[in-house]
């Protein structure tokens, strides 16, 4: 097994063929169930809720080149909800940033692929995350720096709904609008469940969209499992001038596995044995 001090091996053939987003979403979900089972780790429900969003981004929504992970012209993507690392690692491996076999080591001793997203030795990851409320502030700084440097790439941050409780996000939301950062997109995985309780019972966000709009962001609400809607919203965001964009993506935690859907249990529970097999069977039947 490789150590943290060595970079992940890339695929021998370089970039994988660009997959269809729905095919990629199904693969991400299957990988996420297998990875969290092997590593006996948490957050499978969080990976499943965002799988369609990640799939649309990595099936053409982002301008990236797996053969050149540090290409200056690439879009920067930050997964602020870093606990859902399995979903991001699966997408990167499927796109050819590193070998698919590395997914087998997720969240295990000595692995590059830690339970929360890390940059160390993992091509394609822009920022190590896990402590919630940091992704959007960093993305905002990156967007401002890009504009000051005359660079044309976009910066996209994917946040959980629960982490919008963090005050650091609202400082960044205010800052980004003030600086008219139209190269910045925030996507909220709005699955309505936090680690122990529904969002509504933890710290109420509504009227959520109105709050973003009142801070000066172009804001749209979409079905986060509708690939055409996600693609269309990203395209509209690219043409928005003079203000940042927020996509509030309504999703279902545990999407794709009926007994995990809308269940808080699967924030921390790891799928093992018969539950793992039933989850994989559900994903195969839903393909």
Note poorly predicted spans.
Answer: 1-6, 8-14
Q: Averaging pLDDT over every residue, what do you get?
A: 93
Oligomerization status of the protein chains: single chain
SSE succession: HHEHHEHEHHEHEHH
Major β-sheet strand ordering: 1-2-3-5-4
Q: Which percent range describes the beta-strand content?
A: 5-15%
What is the CA–CA distance across the termini? 32 Å
Strands, count: 5
Total helix count? 10
Derived structural class? alpha/beta
Helix content: 25-40%
Q: Quick one: biggest sheet?
A: 5 strands, parallel
Q: What global shape is seen?
A: globular
CA gyration radius, whole angstroms: 18 Å
Per-chain topology:
Elements: H1 21-38, H2 44-61, E1 76-79, H3 85-95, H4 135-148, E2 155-160, H5 167-178, E3 184-190, H6 199-202, H7 208-214, E4 218-223, H8 227-238, E5 245-250, H9 265-268, H10 273-285
Parallel strand pairs: 1-2, 2-3, 3-5, 4-5
Helix pairs in contact: 1-2, 1-3, 1-10, 2-3, 2-8, 4-5
Describe this protein's structure.
- The protein is of the alpha/beta class.
- The chain has ten helices and five strands.
- The protein has helices spanning 21-38, 44-61, 85-95, 135-148, 167-178, 199-202, 208-214, 227-238, 265-268, 273-285; strands at 76-79, 155-160, 184-190, 218-223, 245-250.
- Strands 1-2-3-5-4 form a five-stranded parallel β-sheet, sandwiched between helices.
- Helix 5 links the parallel strand 2 and strand 3.
- Helix 2 (44-61) runs parallel beside helix 3 (85-95) and helix 2 (44-61) packs across helix 8 (227-238).
- The chain is globular.
- It starts with 20 loop residues before the first helix and ends with a helix.
- 49% of the residues are buried.
